[in-house]
Amino acid sequence: MDMELLTNPNGTNHPHLDVEENFNPNLASDPFKWIPQGLFYDLKDTRNDFLFDPTMVNDQVSDYSNQQMFNAFSSSITTLGLYKTNLLLQNGNNQSTQVTSLFSQYGY
């Protein structure tokens, strides 16, 4: 495993959040690069770490449930763009602008 995945890039007191928030979809050594590690957390949490650290994702989405996120998966979902579209469609385009921005910040 690449040491870049294990380091605390921002030097904050929350290295696990730093790693999730600083997800890089182009990091070839990340075995989980096909899915942003912090995306699901950011869809459901009510905290915007950007307010405390402007180097982090500006997460303005909240209150998606695990069930809603799980239900958006199907065998036809082959990209995160398709997943985002299905997630929004199944949930009445709830927070569409914010969800689109969040996916964009993660590189999708």
In short:
With 108 residues, the protein is an all-alpha fold. The chain has helices at residues 15-21, 39-44, 66-71, 80-90, 96-105. The protein has one domain (3-105).
Describe the protein in words.
The chain is mainly alpha-helical and 108 residues long. It has one domain (3-105). It has helices spanning 15-21, 39-44, 66-71, 80-90, 96-105. Helix 4 (80-90) packs antiparallel against helix 5 (96-105). The chain starts with 14 loop residues before the first helix and ends with a helix.
Order of secondary-structure elements: HHHHH
- Report helical residue fraction: 25-40%
Number of domains: 1
- How many β-strand stretches? 0
Q: What's the helix count?
A: 5
- Can you tell me the residue ranges where pLDDT is under 50 for at least 5 consecutive residues? 1-8
Mean of residue pLDDT values: 81
Determine Rg (CA atoms, Å): 14 Å
Largest sheet: none
Q: What is the general shape?
A: globular
Question: Distance between the terminal alpha carbons, to the nearest Å?
Answer: 24 Å
Q: What labels describe this entry?
A:
single chain, 108 residues, disordered N terminus
What is this structure's SSE topology?
Blueprint: H1 15-21, H2 39-44, H3 66-71, H4 80-90, H5 96-105
Helix pairs in contact: 4-5
